[in-house]
Design a protein that fits this description.
166 residues; alpha+beta; 9 strands; elongated; hydrolase; protein-tyrosine-phosphatase; protein tyrosine phosphatase activity
Length: 166
């Protein structure tokens, strides 16, 4: 039986699966209420939890109040720079709202003097977006989802391509 060009050999499938993964695309973040895209993961300011002296003070306070584990995850994202959609009036200091005219949901706050993250780290300047107000938006390229790949039936392929026994 002759094979058509549509069928992929098991070796080709194996080689495709062994290819090094592509670096993930930047994750986009959108307003939870209206789905308006606001920023990407490339625009986030990284910070290390419990890295500064003020974190030690918070840890002692948490121990005093019997917080289990003493470690709190970050409840906010911090942006490295103001975004073009941010209201010019709040650039001194103020609340950050969704740029969608119909939505205007409060997303976070801007404080040039800085603010403390829930993990205990002090971030300056503080362009803080509350995680519960935004959702990550995954595309096919950054969700690591393989679509449209039809894996052949290897047993059927082997049976069709095995020479007849004499």
């Amino acid at each position: 039986m002759e094979m058509t060009g549509d069928v992929t050999s098991p070796r080709e499938v194996e080689l495709q699966l062994q290819e090094p993964p592509q670096p993930p695309a930047a994750t986009k973040y959108a307003c939870k209420k209206c789905r308006c895209v606001l920023f990407t993961s490339e625009e986030l300011m990284p910070h290390e939890p419990e890295r500064q002296q003020i974190s030690t003070r918070r840890k002692l306070k948490d121990m005093k109040h019997h917080v289990p584990g003493g470690h709190v995850d970050c409840s906010s994202y911090f942006l490295e720079e103001t975004q073009s959609w941010m209201d010019e009036a709040l650039l001194a200091e103020g609340k950050i709202h969704c740029p969608s005219v119909k939505c205007q949901s409060r997303l976070g706050a801007l404080q040039w003097s800085g603010s403390q993250c829930s993990c205990g780290t002090w971030v300056t300047p503080s362009i803080k977006i509350t995680k519960s107000r935004v959702d990550p938006v995954f595309s096919q390229s950054n969700a690591n989802i393989v679509t449209g790949v039809v894996l052949p039936n290897i047993a059927a392929y082997a049976a069709e391509n095995t020479p007849p026994a004499h």
